[in-house]
UniProtKB/TrEMBL annotation:
SUPFAM superfamilies: Metallo-dependent phosphatases. PANTHER family: CALCINEURIN-LIKE PHOSPHOESTERASE DOMAIN-CONTAINING PROTEIN (PTHR37523:SF1), METALLOPHOSPHOESTERASE (PTHR37523). One of its GO terms (molecular function) is hydrolase activity. Residues 1-299 form the Calcineurin-like phosphoesterase domain. This is Calcineurin-like phosphoesterase domain-containing protein.
Length: 352
């Protein structure tokens, strides 16, 4: 099966139009994967609402109003972007679109958007994937009837970003490092970012941030702390998934994991540090999925000049690779990869 995969468009319509035009002109593509950060960022949505109010009412919105707008209006505004802008554009695609939410996409919108796209299947097959689930993969044709599976994971490791819907503690033993820091710094507010040594690595993290909630029927953003429970760590999440799947399935599985594995060319940020997940790296090295696709770190490919890692380079096992999309949504240039599930080692990265 020939698949196009991309990530981190963050609502960039110019890039979405390039994606659509490429699909229209390349009939051999059988499925599209969008690996997270599909919609417009919170700050852009908030500022658009504020601008509309100021233009209509001919006044300046106060700082207090801006905070209220961000809390009460942005989640619904993102939902409307999917239904009113993304859907009318992408329904012109002739191939299925599989989408994994990213840390900029609000969790509370997941189920209602899944229902929306399911009700529109007669117009276009858009599948908004359920988090931490494995499903059989069906492409446009899949003439050879390959047995393939798709695993999606939106969660990323703890960062200094304000959005916390999909943020998790990486490793179980990280919890003690975080607790120890705040116990020894009792005056450090959890709503502010701090440099903390976690698992031997100094990271700038924000423990408490914005999560999307349904409060009495209203979709809002509230300040809430990231869970410090072991069962909510990326490590345990992946361990539990492993237990639910037969080992022979992994060689037939494509993983859409929004964050990249730690300590690889796929997770290097502008400062040169690695910002990926140790749990992801351990999971990939142990289970060798057919291919794992990652986004989240927009600049990774530019920093390392590498977009693909061969997970079996020193092994005789079956093919297994990891790729970083490295798409910069602030650019008019659109980045994506194309691979054939029969020969993933021949994956190609394009910029148009």
């Amino acid at each position: 099966m020939k698949i196009l995969a991309t990530s981190d468009l963050h609502g960039n319509i110019t890039q979405y139009k390039k994606l659509l035009n490429f699909i229209i002109n390349n009939k051999d593509i059988e499925a599209i994967f969008i690996d997270g950060d599909i919609s417009v960022r919170r700050s852009i949505l908030r500022d658009a609402i504020i601008k509309n109010i100021e233009e209509k009412e001919n006044r300046i919105v106060t700082p207090e109003e801006k905070t209220e707008i961000e809390s009460t209006k942005v989640v619904d505004k993102q939902y409307e972007w999917f239904t009113d802008i993304f859907f009318p554009l992408m329904k012109q695609s002739s191939v299925p679109i599989y989408m994994n939410m990213g840390n900029a996409d609000y969790k509370i919108n997941l189920n209602r958007l899944r229902k929306f796209f399911e009700n529109k299947k007669e117009e276009i097959d858009i599948i908004l994937l359920e988090n931490n689930k494995l499903i059989p993969l069906k492409g446009k044709n899949n003439k050879e009837k390959e047995e393939l599976y798709l695993y999606s994971l939106s969660n990323v490791s703890l960062s200094s970003h304000r959005n916390k819907d999909w943020e998790s503690i990486d490793m179980k033993n990280d919890i003690e490092d975080i607790k120890e820091y705040f116990n020894s710094h009792p005056d450090s507010p959890k709503k502010e970012a701090h440099y903390i040594v976690i698992n031997g690595i100094e990271k700038r993290i924000l423990l408490s941030g914005l999560k999307s909630k349904n409060i009495e029927g209203k979709m809002i953003l509230v300040n809430e702390q990231v869970s410090l429970s072991q069962e909510d760590t990326l490590e345990e999440m992946l361990e539990n998934f492993e237990k639910s799947v037969s080992p022979d399935v992994f060689s037939k599985t494509i993983c859409l994991m929004h964050a990249p594995p730690y300590g690889t060319p796929l997770d290097i940020v502008k400062g040169g540090e690695h910002a990926g997940s140790i749990a992801f790296k351990n999971f990939i090295n142990k289970n060798k999925p057919l291919i794992s696709i990652h986004g989240h770190i927009h600049e990774s490919v530019n920093m390392s000049n590498v977009f693909m890692v061969d997970n079996n380079i020193n092994s005789s096992k079956k093919q297994s690779i990891s790729v970083s999309i490295g798409n910069d949504f602030k650019s008019k240039v659109f980045s994506f990869v194309i691979f054939d599930t029969k020969n993933v080692l021949n994956v190609q990265r394009y910029q148009i």
